Amino acid sequence: MQEVIVIGGGVIGLTSAWWLLEAGYGVTLLERNAVGSAASLRNGGQLSYRYVAPLADEGVPLKALQWLFEENGPLRFRPEADLRQWRWLTRFLVNCNAGANSKTTARLLELGELSRRAMAELEVFLPLYEFAWRDAGKMVVYRSKKAFNAAAAAKPGAEEAREVLSPAECVAREPALAAALPVLAGGIFNRGEAVADCHAFCVALAARLAAHPRFQGVVNGEARRFITDMGKVIGLDTSAGMLGADHYVLAAGIQSRSLAASAGIYLPLYPLKGYSLTAPIRPTDCAPEISVTDVERKVLYARIGDSLRVAAMVDMVGEDTSIDARRIAGLTRQVRETMPHGADYSRITPWAGLRPATPGSAPIIGATHYPNLWLNVGQGPLGFTFACGSAKLLAGCMKGGAPPFAMDGLTLR
């Protein structure tokens, strides 16, 4: 039995560990904190398998300039004396065209569908109720008539189940949007999309890992650098001592960037800082049953258990995980305006996390130039959505099997 060290105990690392165990490997998990305690802790909770639009798109640079001058705009940028930020931005701008966006979207839709099926496979071992999974459907609402008309005119995929709705129909389908009716141009409802508690998923999956006969355990420590020799990784230097295995899987979020650099590998990742707030739902509240994405404001709403989760914003401020009180205050004002009776906003729990994204919004999965070092990184804000599919792809690559679809755009170039 070949041994694998998976570096990272978030949703990507945990799912990677599971699918590798099922593929016949012995697995050790390395995590510096508690499982699911970083970007997986209080993310948006939406499993948006069909709504996978890349951040890089035609017209985004102009929109980004406009957002920078809005007090509560969805984007905030702080220049750094760090070449990695500018290199990422340059490649991001190169990807901001319709052709690149179309190719990436097609690949992400395939990964999304694989992830949906893989999550269903996992249900055999991990009951959905353990992480508050609900097949809620997803409503994407538009404030701009131009944006709504363009989205409504787009041809859906052959199997995509969607409905184009007027503003009144949006509110009829989701009464929590009643206060926003005067500013809505319309919406699109997609069946088959889900919501769940990502942190609860991580905790539940970690318990299943611990019970697996091939699982070697969790090492609590911080990875420092790879040790390489003769074209292979021969060890991993950690705060818990030197670790060794036959294979190494890098799934450590934004930390993957510096770890890969220790082996001479450049990963085009940048930490897009996102915010969320979680508020308890009282019996008298009118919380959304459907997950909702407010396109122009880049705000998403998801009912997770007995709480309302609201996630939004992209701050390009480096590896700063602090909670900016102004951003939370601005988000709270927008939420009160859109869904004034959605939850108890006097008891908000704020959160901020780093979402490691590539310039083109597609993750990096599979091999490196080292035959025993593998990658599962760069899922960005869709980490929970793509986790199961990415893990299944990775395990297949490591076993030498043929992927279920072309991997161009999803590998390290």
UniProtKB/TrEMBL annotation:
SUPFAM superfamilies: FAD-linked reductases, C-terminal domain, FAD/NAD(P)-binding domain. One of its GO terms (cellular component) is plasma membrane. Residues 4-395 form the FAD dependent oxidoreductase domain. Keywords: Oxidoreductase. Pfam families: DAO (PF01266). The keyword Disulfide bond does not apply. GO terms for molecular function: D-amino-acid dehydrogenase activity. Gene3D superfamilies: D-Amino Acid Oxidase, subunit A, domain 2 (3.30.9.10), FAD/NAD(P)-binding domain (3.50.50.60). One of its GO terms (biological process) is D-alanine catabolic process. Belongs to the DadA oxidoreductase family. This is Amino acid dehydrogenase.
